[in-house]
Amino acid sequence: MSKVLRPRSKLLALEILLIALVILFLLPFYIVFSNSFKSMSDILLDSMGLPPFLDFNNYIRAWEKLNFTLVLKNTLIITAVSNLFLLVFASMAAYRIARSDNRFTRGIFSLFVASMVIPFQAIMIPLVKVLNTAGIVNTLTGVIVSYVGLGVSMTLFLYHGFVKSVPREIEEAATVDGCNPYGVFWRIVFPLLKPMTVTTLMLNTLWIWNDFMLPLIILQKTSLHTIQLAINSLFGEYLKQWDMALAALVMGIAPMIIFFLFLQRYVIEGISAGAVKG
Questions:
Q1: Homologous superfamily of the 66-233 domain (CATH)
Q2: In angstroms, rounded to a whole number, what is the distance separating the alpha carbons of residues 169 and 214?
Q3: What are phi and psi of 127, to 5 degrees?
């Protein structure tokens, strides 16, 4: 009897530990969400308690003060266009490098991988100088070009490993049927890369949407600010407007949560399809 209870007690202890970790992980989200409905005095008096009632005044004030419609549009444009170029360029480059296995392509791939270990702080000043010379500082184009350049190495690295799992016989059959190289990639290979496409899309979107440093050093015009820069404007040297900042954080986080929940199904489908692809 004791032998039967021992595994159950271990399982119960593991479940309790996992529940505690989930609560610990969700605690910051609870603090942000609950305090977004409180006044500044209520936040200072009891930051862990529930709001006395759902007051959306903080959300209205934050939306108006930050011009949230504009900063949301800027963030969406930067994120969407950067992801588009990253997926197109990185997937095509990874496919060509993986299928042309020679000394030159191996060297190019090694350069991409080596660039991943360079910290952003080391290239921050040279990057701004290059963008200034090109005349695209203080523009959304400059931010998008920077994100594509900084993110292409990781995206290409992930695609490169996945392309190798695609059988060459499928491409050869398409070529025999008269498909040109671009048709082979876009009609045959790229649809098979869907699990990796969704994965890289999620990773790059979370990075670009939540990034603060790159827009800070490139975008000085208020009309070009992203959500993160707009929220930062609520914190001054002598005044910190936590009530509006927390409401703005909730509005900034909400699109990413919806985006993640929407793509999660495709990630699970891709993993399941890969598991039975024999």
A1: MetI-like (1.10.3720.10)
A2: 43
A3: -60, -45
pTM for this model (two decimals): 0.86
Question: Which residues on neighbouring strands pair with residue 235, listed in sequence order?
Answer: 240
194/217 Cα distance (integer angstroms): 34
If you average pLDDT over residues 180-204, what whole number do you get? 87
**CA of 266: how far to CAs of 135, 199, 271, in Å?**
40, 9, 9
The distance of Cα 154 from the centroid of its chain, to the nearest Å, equals: 12
Q: Any idea what DSSP says for residue 185? A: I
**Domain locations in the chain?**
2-45, 66-233
The three state secondary structure string of 129-158 is HHHHHHCCCCCHHHHHHHHHHHHHHHHHHH
Q: What is the pLDDT of residue 214?
A: 93
Encode pLDDT of 93-147 as tens digits: 999 998 888 888 889 999 998 988 888 888 999 999 999 999 999 999 999 999 9
Angle ∠(12,15,21) on CA atoms, nearest 5: 145
**What type of residue is 203?**
L
Mean pLDDT of 254-267: 82
What tokens does 123 get? 């290239």
More confidently predicted of 227 and 11? 227
Q: Shortest CA distance to 217 belongs to which of 144, 149, 143, 147?
A: 143
**Stated length of the chain:** 278
Exposed / middle / buried, residue 16 (Cβ in 10 Å: 0-12, 13-18, 19+): exposed
Residues paired with residue 148 on neighbouring β-strands, in sequence order: none
Whether the Cβ atoms of residue 234 and residue 240 lie closer than 8 Å to each other: yes
pLDDT, position 278: 39
159-171 pLDDT, tens digit per residue, is 988 888 888 888 8
Q: What is the separation, in whole angstroms, between the first and last Cα of the chain? A: 43
Residue 137: which of 217, 212, 24, 83 has the closest Cα? 217
